[in-house]
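Something for you to look into today, if you have time. I want to see for myself how the chain folds. Leave the record below and I will have a look.
***
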Amino acid sequence: MRPLWHRLKSGDWLTPERIRAYSLIVLVIGIAAVAVWIGLSKGGIDRNGKPLGTDFSSFYAAGSMALEGHAAAAYDFALHHAREQQMFGADTPYYAWLYPPIFFLIAAPLAWLPYPTALAVWQFGTLALYLAVIGAILRSVRTDSTVRRNWLLVAIAFPAVLINLGHGQNGFLSAALFGAALLALPKRPILAGIMFAALAYKPQFGIAIPFALLAAGRWRTIVVACVTIAVLVAITAALFGIESWSAFVASSSISRKVLLESGAVGFEKLQSAFAMVRLWGGSVPLAYAVQALVSCAVIAGIVWCWRSACDDAHKAALLVTGTLLASPHILDYDLIVLAVAIAFLTAQGLRTGFRPFEISLLGALWIVPLLARSAAGFLALPVGFLVIATFYAVVLTQARHEAGAARHPDFAKT
């Protein structure tokens, strides 16, 4: 038997048969869990007294307020909670509305529909977008019979899919926009700019992306993204009132202190360096200091990579994982965007060959959303952050080594 280290390095342990089997196991368990959860609910309220789709109830309530001409009031936690209680019952826990007014462009139309219909349209509509983008990233290798037979199963069984469905969250939309932007960037820079701009509804994703685009000199994409964001701001100000933007800015500091710094959302649920320090009992200033160091290091690596001759797939994977590492406010359902990194590197590996440890790291990246919250909650082990950081560091190190070998080919052969 080959030593474990060599098997991890080669990745030959993760055969197509095992990939299919693991995916089927996770998918069956996920479907069973969803079926039981829905079966135990009553009137759209689960056995814990929460609306099905939990976080989506926040979007729906905020959207209804926007339709009535009171978008700014959605940023008042008391008024927003009162609307949630009005819709879902007096015992409904609070799910905050933290998004910029851009997201009203989605939340308000959905609030026209009955809640169960709106939830279904939201979940399955954005899930379809996510799957379409993952399929597009893999298009060049889907002629392979193994890929053609397994890719959809692996994408649906990805544990972050179940997490996102359980929360009624926007991870599918984020992954679709991020993946579409990266896919379009080499040949369709204008479309990429529009996709990146649409991702602005998720401000915490915007820390690393501008540095990558600047480093690569993607000026058309940058200009289009800036113009598109300006247009979105103008449209939302016209539709929902400029005061909605003022209310969003004013609420941001409160939400940062309550949900992030004090851990109201749960440090085990957050997947960042900031949360790791707080989970281990560190102070808020120390957590911010560690997060700042991680963010700067990650951005520096992204800038180097995007300025180099590194292939587009590895640039994309580093930017996706770096985006998660650079922000203090990343939750477990945000890990769905890892599917974009996995898809890009899988396609590249099947075309040109996988680098050492790459297959094993991709396997770890795929399974980690299933373990991240539980490991942090029960063992105080921030496995989500650690796996993503390890993946980022290994991929960046290999990229730097290959860049050095390309500059000094004779030395690399010795």
Residues 13-249+266-404 form one domain. Confidence is low (pLDDT under 50) at residues 410-414.
